[in-house]
Amino acid sequence: MATISAHLRNFKEPDREEQTILFFSIPSEPKPPLTKDGKPPLPREGEERMEINAVLSLGVQGEEDAYAGKLYLLPPYLAFASVDRRSVRFTIPLCTIRRVERLNARAGVYALSLSLWHGMKIIVQLTTLRPTADLFSALLRDALKLELQVGRMRAVKAFSKTCYSEVLLSGSSPVAEGEREDGSLINSEKAGEDGQLSYHGGLGLRFKFPGDPKKLREASKTKLWTNYLKTRGRHLTLLRYPQCTRLVQVGLPNRLRGEMWETLSGSIFLRFDSPGLYEKLLEDNKGRVNTSTEEIEKDLHRSLPEYAAYQSEEGIGALRRVLQAFSFKNPDTGYCQAMNILAAAILIYMSEEQAFWLLEVICDRLLPGYYSTSMHGTLLDQRVFESLVTRCLPMIHDHFTEVDVQLSVASLPWFLSLFINSMPMVFAFRIVDCFFCMGPKVLFQVGYVLPPDEIPQRPYVSLQLRSILKINGEKLLQIQDDGQFIHLMRDYFSSLGESAHPDSSDPRARAITRFQELLLVSFREFAIITDDTITSERRKFRSEVVTSIESFSKRSAIRNLRSLERFTKEQVGFIYDALFKAVCVEPPPQPVAPPPSLLATKDAPEERPETRIELKTFRVFLSEIATWARDEKIVVNGFQRRVDREVAEHEFIDRLFFFWDSSFRGSLSLQDLVTGLDGVMFNGLMESIEWFFNLHDKNKDGYLTKDEVLTLSESLLFIFRFEIGDAYLGAISRFMSNAFEYGDALLPPAAEDFPETQIESNQPYLNLATFRMVILAEEALETFFETDLSASFRLEPVPLMDLPPAISSNGLLGGLWSSITSDDNKKLFHKFSDELGRAVGRHQVIHKPSIGRFTNIEEPRPRESLLTPAMRRSASRSSLTSPSDTDVPKSSSSLLAPTSTVEGMTPPPVPQKRQDRDMESIAESFGALSMVQAANAALMERTPFAIDDAKDDEDDSDLDSEVAEDDGVLDEVDAFLEAHDTSGLSDADKALAKDLVNAEPVE
Amino acid sequence: MAEAASGSADKSVQVKLVLLGEAAVGKSSVVLRFVANEFQANKEPTIGAAFLTQKCRLEDRVLRYEIWDTAGQERFHSLAPMYYRNAQAAVVVYDITKAASLEKAKTWVKELQRQANPNIVIALAGNKLDLVQPSPSASGGSAESEDEADDATATPGEEPSSGEAAESLRQVPREEAQAYAQEAGLLFFETSAKTGEGVVEVFTEIAKRIPIEHILASSRGGAGRPGAGSGRTDGAQGGVNLQENQAKGKDACNC
Ligand SMILES: Nc1nc2c(ncn2[C@@H]2O[C@H](COP(=O)(O)OP(=O)(O)OP(=O)(O)O)[C@@H](O)[C@H]2O)c(=O)[nH]1
Ligand SMILES: [Mg+2]
């Protein structure tokens, strides 16, 4: 697995409002961005939410059921839940409300009558104080007005034509029962006689629904539902009374099933909200091929293959379109095996569009994370399931632990495919009915009974039932391994249609199937398992599961690397951790496989999607590893001392990013990072110098241009920006002047005719050998390249951000420290103590050095010049005069005759051990020189750059010129530093910083 | 307890075997062929894992294979450790008409060699051999072969070259896979779940390699030791354990 994602970390428990939205299956809209002061923006008129205590009743004669509960105005929906949140509830789009009247009732009673588009009336009595009720009415009016304005009211009628329930209710008399009993032909007949009703239906209409309609008692179920829908609303306006749940539990009638699923799950609201989106997705992505579509193709013929529709192009095509549309809409999830089975199953009962939206709700809301690439939802719920078994069925749990059977080997497929391919379809669909009506807890409740446990203690379980379960429980207790467990379960599932009490003398008891028994036990015995139980259990195990997924991904990411290079596994582990942290802070774009059009042939092995980080993330990553890639400020305010850490930004870091992007994709993979780090962390002196040179040699021609020399110096200045003392500044300035002297010296002589020609920006200027020589002339730079550069990359955790508070007489705040835990609190505390420190004049900020070699201002002696005085004079002249000075180029070009350069060179007075090396470099540079010379005969002028402005008097003595030149460079350096010094430190601060660091080095 | 687990009454030796490999390479079909000598043209994808058993006679011994057939899709990968823990044998399957599936097979082998039972016997099986064989009888039954027949009548000119056309479907040369298997120390087979070719051999060859005495000894000795025979790693709780089991047995960073 080569994708790294922090989304599991970023999970946030839904807040109260989000929970309400979830509870009522209201499509959630993305939260509006917070306003400047960090608060959610005020709702616009007509969008304000409110909840109010209310009593719900229907203005129906003879029905006297009123329910107390809460009424929620959640534009564009109105919702209600009874006090127990279970018995009665509804979610109704506001646009289905046609009239709202205040009822003229007894004094002190505030009641509203809501007339829905099909004439049904809902009466809500607002049981609060008058002003609250008035406010609610006013907001409701505003919300309705807005609905009218956006014109959604008109959409309702057209939408209702797509619903089968309208067909049931349309006929003055319900459709003849015989017709419905026998299944398949009704659709065409119906369409013939009643053209304007083109309701959505599933493949079952043509290919027959599974099961025997007589046995399923379709006719009587349909009648019951017809009556229910007549009085309690339908599709968009369904009110859910206890009878609704009971009717669902005996199994939905086949023709109504699809519509009821979408109504109960709330996916109908999505379909209503976005008409045509399904077709549009397919249209927009026509012909698109990606990993998901390929995986889908593989499974199309492997989804409920025994069902007739999936042996025909009609069924296969529908399945393909639904799965593809889902993957186009949810590219993160794409396609997960098991979704094919779900989709194939629901398509029997509903249209493609309905199935598409239902799938969306299943994956997004009902079973979140089940089908995601990490499958964290599945893993989490398996953990929860197991924990609940421990709690509810301790004997089974203990036995399983003893024989080391993992429950999830059997239960995982149940959950993933909603039991659809675990038990005979007719039974599975009834569990699915309950699932959409009662929510995910159903899976757990049903899951529990399998394994059916002995539960003899419960007094209300019949003796017979008890004994049956006991037998099953005993069977489970005899299981010795995973295999036997799976076998037992499979046998049990396949016997679900059999009588639960075959030996009973009572024919009614004999008629009870095992499946009925199963549901009975599920919902009675395990009613203790509520949505809340599951929510809290999920919360409990989430981090455990996330950690295990993350460490699994880490291990496989490392295992799948092409090469660990010279690192140990632990070291690569650290690189991974740094990358992971960076991905958390600065999420990269979704990992995607390269577009297929880029692949050479269709059959070429497709690249797996992998996480590749972009520059922004890379900066964070590097700040975890390279000391100079972070700005560390030691803040001392008299109460505490801490290190504030920020990610540094500099062109040098960007350069490194592109340097490591060996495949030119504008992004880096874990392998790129490992290989990149390998290229710098094991280097000795010469390799380091070469690495640094190559890093700045953009066109890889073996030469730095003049601009590149300048950038290189800036890179060095960046790395040394927080070092103490002037050692590096001096070294770099001398390096620059030497580099320019050499570079100019090695330039081909200027042609007389074009004295004004300037060096082109891509003109090769300084080769590696010369560069090396110039670097080695500076001891500070030499040590830097010898050890410090590679050592500045550290594969170890960055020391903690917070130092323990300084022990001071002001121990008051220090004492508080231990009680502060959260990040936010810390930030607040830091701010507070900084302000306090400032007030008492003890606030100081010191930059922590990245290299830390020099702890005082003493500077290592510069090496003696490598150049003869004559050379120096001419070179410095050429590098420091402005191009407008016409006389100089001539004279310098004559002085810079290549022969004289070569002859004038003397071996540099460097320590003996280094001499050979340098001799080589020099020899190399000579060779290169003659090449350049041959190639360029024309006179070249270098491009003017900032340092030129530091005008120098060409008549100055050697010594003066050298000093002045350094000054010029130093001015530039100062300007540079100033420009890059974000802290705005005063000189006094800096001095103090030095003192402090010298006095007691941190860490 | 452990005695009952592996030294069951009929003196057969239980061997836990796991099938791994990319989606739709034919793992379930190979198992079905071995267990029931059947072939189903459209097998549903395996969700999580399926479990089957089959006995296998080897000289005077009877081996009882407990076969875990796993799901092939990449995202089910993290579940695999649950199934290959304690396995004594593994069959890693690829599809010889899909080069990428061999790459996936290699990553499985790598993972098994690092994470699974150290004595695990691994076989590499290149499946769908029938697709690259010039079929003498145009092979039987499946919808694909009917399609082929239709194509053939539509363009009769291609008829004679059908043998070559079949061979050109092959994307993984036998030699290449065999060389890899040798290098990695795996048993190697090419199989066809459709015709049955090579399937039984996979399981009998594995049976020969299983250290049966070892398993018997460890089951006689009571509670099995980790990694030995069908002994279970101790203290493993049921449920979803991605790595705790391995982490216990080995060191913390066994990547
Ligand atoms: N021609 C041919 N087709 C095969 C062979 N083996 C399997 N198939 C077909 O390949 C498809 C996938 O087979 P499965 O056995 O389900 O593959 P799997 O590896 O179990 O797939 P997952 O469970 O998704 O991991 C099915 O349509 C099989 O009919 C074979 O040997 N020859
Ligand atoms: Mg399978």
Give an overview of the whole structure:
Chain A is built from 44 helices and 13 strands. In chain A, the strands form 3 sheets. An 8-stranded antiparallel β-sheet of chain A has the order 5-6-7-1-2-3-4-8. In chain A, helix 15 (313-329) packs across helix 16 (339-347) and helix 34 packs across helix 39 (869-880). The relative contact order of chain A is 0.06. Residues 172-195, 450-471, 593-607, 802-815, 864-986 and 992-1003 of chain A have low confidence and may be disordered. Chain B has 255 residues and is α/β, with parallel strands linked by helices. Chain B is built from 10 helices and 6 strands; from the N terminus they run αβαββαβαβαααβααα. In chain B, a hairpin with a 2-residue loop joins strand 2 and strand 3 (61-70). Mean pLDDT of chain B is 75; it is low at 1-9, 138-162 and 221-255. Chains A and B meet through helix 14, helix 18, helix 19, helix 20 and helix 24 of A and strand 2, helix 3 and helix 4 of B. Magnesium ion binds next to helix 2 of chain B.
Under CATH, the topology of the domain at 376-546 and 925-946 in chain A can be stated as Cyclin A, domain 1
Largest interface: A-B, 66 and 51 residues
The biggest sheet of chain A amounts to: 8 strands, antiparallel
Count of separate DSSP helical elements of chain A: 44
Runs of chain A with pLDDT <50, length 5+? 172-195, 450-471, 593-607, 802-815, 864-986, 992-1003
The CATH C-level class name of chain B: Alpha Beta
Radius of gyration of chain B: 20 Å
Q: Average pLDDT value of chain B?
A: 75
- Proper CATH architecture of the domain at 376-546 and 925-946 in chain A: Orthogonal Bundle
Helix/sheet category of chain B:
alpha/beta
Estimated share of beta-strand residues of chain A: 5-15%
Protein name (chain B): Ras family-domain-containing protein
Organism (chain B): Vararia minispora EC-137
Protein name (chain A): TBC-domain-containing protein
